[in-house]
Design brief:
Elements lengths: L5 H12 L2 E6 L19 E4 L1 E4 L4 E5 L3 E2 L8 E9 L7 E13 L6 E2 L5 E4 L1
Length: 122
């Protein structure tokens, strides 16, 4: 056997996605959560629930839509989302690149439909 079992994958994803707060990033957040958007009415959203499906690989996806506040100033070009343990501060749990980046200008509102944000354990 190489890699995690189906149970191992679920055991890894469940604590990462339980009571998660979603952040937006203009560049790779690395292991620390850097490059998070700031200002312009930006706020992390959550707690967001995730549902895990499949196995080998197990995929966790947001269970409901995620709607950020309307930007009151430009947020830059969003390329990643992150997972945190709290609405501010907290522990950075991980990130994933968006399938396409998007410039967020004043007056824009970022929204993700249910199942749009996914994390894969394999």
């Amino acid at each position: 056997m190489s890699g995690l079992s189906s149970g191992g994958e679920a055991a890894v994803l469940t604590p990462l996605t339980t009571s998660a707060y979603i952040s937006l990033h203009t560049a790779d957040p690395t292991d620390t959560g850097v490059n998070e958007v700031a200002g312009g009415s930006y706020a992390r959203q959550g707690p967001v629930s995730f549902t895990s499906t499949g196995n080998n690989p197990t995929v966790a996806a947001n269970s409901t839509a995620i709607i950020f506040p309307v930007a009151s100033a430009g947020w830059g070009t969003i390329a990643y989302f992150g997972l945190w343990s709290a609405a501010s501060g907290g522990t950075f749990r991980g990130s994933a690149a968006l399938s396409s980046s998007r410039a967020v200008n004043s007056g824009d509102q970022v929204q993700f439909a249910g199942s749009a944000l996914t994390l894969t354990a394999n």
